[in-house]
Design a protein that fits this description.
Blueprint: E1 3-9, H1 22-31, E2 35-40, E3 45-50, H2 55-70, E4 76-80, H3 81-89, E5 103-108, E6 129-133, E7 136-140, H4 149-154, H5 157-160, E8 165-169, H6 170-179
Helix pairs in contact: 3-6
Length: 182
């Protein structure tokens, strides 16, 4: 039995830092024994099948392989296709009426307590909004992520301490759901 996964790498190929060519990422994943490896965009999205049923173990193995090959650490979140579909289906915002750049999902390596975000004054950032889901945070930023004050506030290190967090825009989320369909 195999599972189709998406690996979401955090902070690679941004402004020339932590360069991980997608061809090398595909080779790494294949070398780890995964099959049907494809990448999406240059920002660290890979889809593959694996005999493993342990997302966290696959993520740790990939992190180690990247460090061994490139000499730097890259945090990875690995999720199966069913989870990605559930995240898309549970979106609390009207995704079908928004542009992909207006809606983002931050994927967490584990469940986060809503209390972690209690210091964020939600009313101060309106019309921007966020909602928590299953190991995910949905962010509505009507003017895009680059201009979002709420994204800046949510990105403070204190809020993500001890948890790997990596964000994708809605277009990428939808594409990953499509690529992980069994």
């Amino acid at each position: 039995m195999t599972t189709t996964y998406a690996a979401l790498l955090r902070g690679i190929n941004v402004s020339g830092h932590k360069r991980v060519p997608m061809a090398d990422l595909r080779t790494l994943l294949s070398g780890l024994g995964h099959d049907q490896v494809v990448t999406h965009l240059q920002s660290g999205n890979a889809v593959f099948t694996s005999a493993s049923d342990d997302e966290d173990a696959v993520a740790r193995e990939l992190e180690q392989a990247i460090e061994d090959r490139f000499g730097f650490t890259v945090d990875c979140v690995v999720r199966d296709g069913g989870y990605l579909r559930a995240v898309a289906d549970a979106c609390p915002f009207p995704a079908d009426t928004l542009e992909g750049k207006q809606l983002h999902v931050t994927f967490f390596s584990e469940r986060v307590d809503p209390e972690r975000f209690s210091s964020v004054d939600r009313s101060a950032y309106l019309p921007e909004e966020f909602r928590l889901g299953d190991r995910a945070l949905y962010l509505y930023a009507p003017h895009g992520l680059g201009r979002s004050k709420l994204a800046e506030a949510l990105g403070r290190p204190a809020l993500s301490k001890g948890v790997t967090a990596t964000s994708r825009n809605w277009n990428t989320v939808v594409k990953l759901v499509e690529l992980t369909r069994d």
